[in-house]
Write a structure and sequence with these properties.
Mean pLDDT: 88
Strand content: 15-25%
Shape: globular
Order of helices and strands: HHHEEEHEHEHEHHEHEH
Structural class: alpha/beta
Number of helices: 10
Number of strands: 8
Number of domains: 2
Helix content: 25-40%
CATH topology of the largest domain: Rossmann fold
CATH architecture of the largest domain: 3-Layer(aba) Sandwich
């Protein structure tokens, strides 16, 4: 069987198109998700043969080895809320030499769509770095309105801390990241104190302080998107017709939690973003700087809402590695 045939077989004939899922999972969805994840990794290992291993690039060498270095545990339930089972996928190293730096990834989708499966390609740079990766889903708007998504992500953080030893996770080197609404949720996960009470649906060990936040064009002022010039339908839909939406919007706004003891934060944002105003990234950067929080704003000139060029993404990840090395979260870049 050639590599492409192996990929198709691992997918089990299932289309890669993402479809909306009902709140209650069925057994066939679990199997379908597992085939999907296996297919993604197998497709990554389909590299063209080379005359000599010495001629392969480092990426071409790492790619086929990744299957030996990682084990995937898909769709692990970390919380049940509103009779809805919330899942996460764990990419665990098979050869850990003690606790490993760990990334918690939160997908985007305007709080109303997206899925953890669609985000798999965004995990690759972190897997190449040798990190453990936890890919988290949360309740989107059609399941539960705000602030459910924030509560879920805080519970995912607590689950990671509770199960750290089982998955060789170093809770002193936890980095949380996400894109768009996922960037907002990453900020909230790393910035919200327990005193805010947004983690009470999953009592347990104290929430760990994350080592850093990598914010990809995330919303920093939710209320700004509910009315006025920056009003966005996706933000309005997240709150529905609840009468206290302004109060809740303040509770789920990262700018509301700026203080001096926050973890380091690096933000990536295009200055021509039509979906999340670039001004929100500037306000976060200015507020963090005034509070004395280590932070960096990486601006993509002319950049829209993601979809950056290959060269821009390489520059961004170089900046991320340098930022994490400066914070002593990684030892080299």
């Amino acid at each position: 069987m050639n590599c492409l045939a192996g990929v198709m077989e691992s997918y089990g004939g299932v289309s890669a198109t993402v479809v909306s899922r009902p709140p209650q999972r069925k057994g066939r969805l679990e199997a379908k998700s597992r085939r999907w994840l296996n297919g993604v990794l197998l497709s990554l290992f389909c590299v063209a043969p080379s005359p000599a291993v010495a001629q392969l690039s480092p990426a071409a060498i790492w790619t086929p080895q990744a299957g030996n270095n990682y084990r995937i545990e898909p769709n692990v339930t970390y919380l049940v809320a509103n009779n809805y089972e919330l899942k996460l996928d764990i990419y665990k190293r098979t050869d850990p030499a003690g606790p490993q730096p760990t990334l918690i990834f939160i997908h985007g989708g305007g709080w109303g769509g997206g899925s953890k499966e669609v985000a798999v390609m965004s995990l690759l740079p972190w897997l190449e770095m040798g990190w453990v990766v936890v890919n988290v889903e949360y309740r989107v708007a059609r399941v539960s309105l705000a602030p459910a998504a924030v509560q879920d992500c805080l519970c995912a953080l607590r689950w990671v801390a509770t199960n750290a030893s089982q998955y060789s996770i170093d809770t002193r080197r936890l980095v949380v990241t996400g894109e768009s609404a996922g960037g907002h949720l990453a900020l909230m996960t790393g910035m919200v104190p327990e005193s805010a009470g947004l983690d009470r649906q999953c009592p347990g060990v104290s929430l760990p302080k994350v080592a850093a936040i990598v914010n990809w064009f995330g919303i920093t002022d939710v209320a700004d998107l509910l009315d006025g010039a920056n009003r966005k339908p996706y933000a309005v839909a997240w709150f529905g017709s609840m009468p206290d939406r302004e109060e809740i919007a303040h509770r789920v706004t990262p700018l509301s939690y700026i203080r001096s003891d926050l973890p380091p934060i690096i933000t990536i944002h295009g200055d021509a973003d039509p979906t999340v105003p670039y001004q929100q990234a500037l306000r976060l950067h200015e507020g963090l700087t005034q509070a004395g929080v280590p932070n960096q704003l990486v601006t993509i000139p002319g950049g829209k809402h993601g979809h950056f060029t290959n060269e821009e993404r390489v520059r961004v990840f170089r900046a991320i590695r340098e930022f994490l090395a400066k914070q002593q979260i990684i030892t080299d870049n």
